[in-house]
Amino acid sequence: MQVDPRGLRFGAAVTTLVLAAVLITGNPWLLAVQTVVFVLGAFGAAPYALFFKRFVRPRLGPPRELEDAAPPRFAQGVGMAFALVGLIGFAAGVTPLALGATAAALLAAFLNAAFGLCLGCEAFLIIRRLQPGRIS
Amino acid sequence: MPYAMTGLVVLGVTLVAGTLLGWALTRRSGVLRETRRETRHETGRETGKAVEKEARVDFGEPLGERATLVQFSTAFCQPCRATRRVLGEVAGMVPGVRHIEIDAESRLDLVRAFDVMRTPTVLILDSSGNIVKRASGQPRKADVIAAIGQAVLPDVLPDVDRTSQHTDGK
Description:
The complex is a heterodimer.
Chain A: E1 2-3, H1 5-25, H2 28-42, H3 47-60, E2 67-68, H4 70-92, H5 95-115, H6 119-130
Antiparallel strand pairs in A: 1-2
Helix pairs in contact in A: 1-2, 1-3, 1-5, 2-4, 4-5
Chain B: H1 2-27, E1 33-34, H2 37-43, H3 47-56, E2 67-73, H4 80-93, E3 97-103, H5 108-113, E4 121-126, E5 131-136, H6 141-152, H7 160-167
Parallel strand pairs in B: 2-3
Antiparallel strand pairs in B: 1-5, 2-4, 4-5
Helix pairs in contact in B: 2-3, 6-7
């Protein structure tokens, strides 16, 4: 499957704003909404990307090139994991955990929005390298 | 309210860290750097062995007659597709140059041997399989062509006309 890279950047920018708002307000419901967005994104139905496709892309014209859908989906999964940890932090009243996990997800979203970097994807090979036992 | 302060500080620190990290990661991305045996020794754990290994490394495919473009990729790698296209085009354009793409996940031995931290990582080998240049991130086509010129040059030094013809081919 192929996706419009501009949609990914757009989604990352919206995610950055939402997670920044979570940090500022400390509102766990906002983080819960973003967690649902991550879950949908991991299953290939990223809401922000759908919004982009519907309302923004018609104004921009077709993309110059498309990108694979697998890396951003993986990244959404990584974002989901951090958002879930953040939610647990909020629910348990452990503020450093809530803020730390939200900040980690924000860092990844910001890097994607501002630099087009996929932090989860960058980490993927390093994590695989560290895994013992499955050495070929 | 103390919470709002903490949140703002965390937000600020995260954005500053993100900017620095993004800058560090993109600054040298795709830049083809010279690799000398000496520099590899610094990173390699077993000095003597590393060189030995390098000469006999099995990429799973035959090397190009004059140069080989080795690309490490993973399934979760955004710039790998564009890199594949660039290297494929160069290999198709310059005779005797092959493009080999390696799935990093299934060849973790090579990933460790060459200390690959990111994908795509591109190695440019000369005709005898020595690494001449290396880049992490998507390299520019012109840089790849120039690097191949360098890799091929020692082989065809007496025949300067042929070299210039190939490097000017683009």
